[in-house]
Each structure stands twice: as C-alpha cells, then as structure tokens.
Design goal:
The protein has 461 residues and is of the alpha/beta class. Helix content is 39%, strand content 13%. It is built from 16 helices and 14 strands. The chain has a five-stranded mixed sheet, with helices on both faces. Strands 9-12-11 form a three-stranded antiparallel sheet.
Length: 461
C-alpha cells in the first residue's frame, strides 16, 4: 500500500481579493505590439498572472496594514523610523540605519561614498542597478562568482559562492587600495536565485580582513539565502532562519536593502552599516538625494509596515511557503521537460532561453522573445534576464552576450495560489510545443541606461 505524502499549505488565509480579467489572444497581440515587445511596457490591466518581479508586489498582512494606520508623518524624528531602526538592529545587527526610497537609493549612497575613480568592485555576479551605480561613481564591476554559477545545468547547491582565487587575482593585479569593498549578494538574482554558503562567507571574511577590504551585503533576498543554508549546509539543519541570517550579517560590514522583497512591503529600502563615520557621511548625503535622515524617501506608514514585515519574513513558516511555491512551479516545469536553471532558486523559476529557442542567435534576443511569447500565450507577464539586461560593453559597444540567457518567472510573496502556478505551467508548455516556429526580435529603441526597462523591439522578418 502506498503512503500518501502530506501536502503543505500557505501559513495564511485570504481576507481580500483583487479581481482579474483574462484578455483574448488578439487583445494580447495588440498590447505587446504597443509595448514594443517589452513586458515592462505592458499595462497591468492587460496582465492575467503577473510574474514580472517580486519587487514591491507582495501582499501585506493584516498586521502590516494595521501598522499603516499608525504612520507618524512628521518631517523629522518620525516614531516609525525608530521602530524600523530597532527592527534592523534586532534582526540584522547593524548599528546604524539610513532609510531610502528603495534599494537603488541605498546603492547610490554606498557607491558615491565608497568608490573612487578607477576602483574595482568585485562581486558574486552583477546586478543591473548595482553595477550601474558603481560605474556612475567611476568604478568597474568585476565578476568573482564561482564558474558553476554561469552553468544553468550545474547542480551546485551554493552557486552564489565567491571564488577566492578570482578575487585574489584581482587584488594582486590592482592592489587592495583600489578595491573599496566586495559586493556580496544573497540569493544571486542573475544566477537564478542561487545562495552562498556560510563556509564560503567565513573564508571571504578572513581574506578581506587580511587585505583590509570591506564586505557590503546586498540583503535584498538574504533571508531566503539563510533558509537555503538551513536546508543544504551541513551543521545548520537545526538552526533557525533568524540565527543563520544574523550570522551572515555579523560577518559583513554593512548592507544595501531593497525592502520590496524580503521586507514584504510595496516601497522602501535602507543603507545600514557599523562604521560611525561612514554612517554620518551617509546621513549627510541622503538629504541631497532622498530626504531627511529619519525618513529618507519613505512615508512613516511605510517604515512601520517594513518594521513589521521584517518580523514576519524571518520565520520558518513564511520562508517554507515562499520557497515552496517557487519549487512547486519549478518541479512541474521540470517534469514537463522544460529547460530551467538548476537548482530551483528562491524567488523565481528561470527558463533557459538558449535551450528553449536554440535556433535564435543571442543578438536576436531569445529571452526577450520568449517573455513576449508567454504573454501572448496566456497573459502571463515575465521578464528577460539575458542579453538585453546585460547591456553593452562600454569599450566595444557590442552586446555583452552573457553566458546565461534567461526568462525569469518571478513569484510575488503571498499573492498567487497553486492553481495559478498550474496555469503558468500550461502556458510555458504550450509555448514549448510551438517553439520551432518562433522568430526573434530586433531592438529598435535603446535608452542610455538600464535598457531592459524601456527598450523597444520588433519581430524579425
């Protein structure tokens, strides 16, 4: 007799719903044409299941909404700022906090304060806005992630690890005085939501101490990274997500945070650090770009929602359900024979567009093409993470043609049901079944910065 495997359920119940409308295929064809075949330019009202991003798209809890009513909107010294400061000190451990309107505001502060012209900033794979801020400050990003991260088929459990040999070669070449910090991202987005291990971070900490280099954490999805450590790293299976997360933060010197992910809010972010002098400089600069140092571009009510969201996000129940839903979608696609990045990551399932559409050259933008086709098929909005996102090499002017050409199916937290994931699976399979007839795209408009947001395309003849 077979033993039934126990199902799991989300650790919440639904109190309110937003009604969705399914458009016709003809309506979606017209909508994607108007959007220049760029899913970022499609209108939300024309989308059925929105997997464009998990940034600011999560559902807040009743507790968070109650906190919104307690917003202290004083220009200076908002009570909600001190509640957020207390939450960050309690769970992250950093002494000093500077709020910003979102993560890229914190990236701008950190880059302006720490990078000098000609500096090199190593990191475990680039992220689009992070690299741009580093470049605008006069620095150059250098990828020091392990090679397995660039291989979508590699089963390595910690593809977000830093390759210490790559880092050392860079430091020996340019000198440690030209390396202001290493940019360490938790659950590396561009690699498919892949975590680093605590063992790797300990080695990195020892190396950076020896060479007087700071470690600045991109904490955007690092609570999810802590959950993977609990699952995959020997010796941590009995540690809580909260304990592991604090261990990570304690081995770094500061962080930037897009609170729109782990923080379970629709807007907000912060820069945090332990260095008092750096904090004072950040306090001074935030007034120029964001707002006063006790709100920094956030309303008081949003700071309160974030303080409460941090407490909810760091629990095992939340992380198990969040990552479990991503895994549910990924395993269904695997079972259908769809090529995806392995292992399944935390915030999204990443389709391997190179293998999905092998007949398209990378300069025919297979990932951008596939994202458009998924929208046409079923109104499912996803996003490209490949040649378009990578941008152009500033020296040659040519597309960077990264090793990973991916489409990201990004799942908002606490928003969709398993039935929605079944619909997404069916849509991907339907496109897969007609993949040989799909033609690529050509770029007809390219903005100067972060082109994937606003570029426009047309189908190839």
């Amino acid at each position: 007799m077979s033993v039934r495997k126990h199902s799991w359920a989300e650790p919440y119940k639904i109190k309110m719903v937003e009604l969705l409308t399914m458009t016709s295929r003809e309506e979606r064809m017209e909508a994607i044409r108007e959007a220049g075949y760029n899913t970022f330019l499609t209108k939300s009202k024309d989308v059925y299941i929105d997997l464009l991003t998990d940034s600011g798209t999560s559902a807040m809890s009743d507790r968070q909404w109650a906190g919104m009513m307690l917003g202290d909107e004083a220009y200076a010294g908002s009570e909600n700022f001190y509640n957020l400061e207390e939450a960050v000190r309690k769970y992250y451990g950093y002494r000093y906090l500077v709020p910003t309107h979102q993560g890229r505001g914190a990236e701008n502060l950190m880059s302006q304060l720490l990078i000098k012209q000609g500096d090199c900033i190593p990191g475990n794979m680039y992220f689009t806005t992070t690299r741009l801020h580093q470049e605008l400050a006069g620095g150059a990003f250098v990828d020091v992630i392990i090679d397995e991260a660039h291989d979508p088929d590699s089963p390595h459990p910690f593809k977000g690890n830093v390759d210490l040999d790559k880092l050392d070669r860079l430091v020996q070449e340019v000198g440690s005085d030209r390396v202001p910090y290493i940019s360490l991202e938790g659950n590396v987005n561009m690699a498919g939501g892949q975590p680093f291990s605590l063992a790797n971070l300990r080695k990195l900490r020892a190396y950076c101490d020896e060479h007087d280099i700071a470690i600045m954490l991109d904490a955007t999805r690092t609570m999810e990274n802590a959950y993977f450590i609990r699952e995959r790293e020997a010796g941590y299976e009995n540690h809580s997500v909260r304990e592991i997360f604090r261990d990570i933060c304690d081995m770094t010197d500061g962080c930037t945070m897009s609170a729109k992910k782990d923080g379970l809010v629709n807007i907000g972010g912060f820069f945090a650090c332990n260095d008092e002098e750096l904090f004072k400089r950040a306090q001074n600069l935030v007034v120029v770009y964001e707002g006063l140092h006790t709100y920094g571009g956030m309303a008081g009510r949003d700071m309160e929602a974030l303080a409460r969201g941090i407490e909810e996000a760091i629990t095992e129940d939340h992380q198990a359900a969040r990552i479990g839903q991503v895994r549910y979608l990924g395993e269904h696609l695997q079972n259908a024979g769809i090529p995806i990045v392995q292992p399944i990551g935390s915030h999204a399932v990443f389709l391997d567009a190179r293998r999905f559409l092998p007949h398209l050259d990378q300069d025919e933008y297979p990932a951008q093409t596939l994202a458009a086709e998924l929208y046409i098929e079923a109104g499912v909005r996803t996003m490209e993470r490949g040649n378009v996102s990578a941008g152009r090499d500033p020296e040659t002017g040519q597309n960077r043609r990264p090793a990973l050409e991916l489409v990201r199916l990004t799942i908002p937290r606490r928003v969709y049901t398993q039935a929605h994931m079944d619909v997404v699976t069916d849509a991907v399979v339907d496109v897969w079944n007609r993949r040989e007839s799909i033609k690529g795209l050509k770029m007809v408009y390219e903005p100067e910065y972060l082109r994937f947001f606003q570029a426009r395309f047309e189908p190839l003849d």
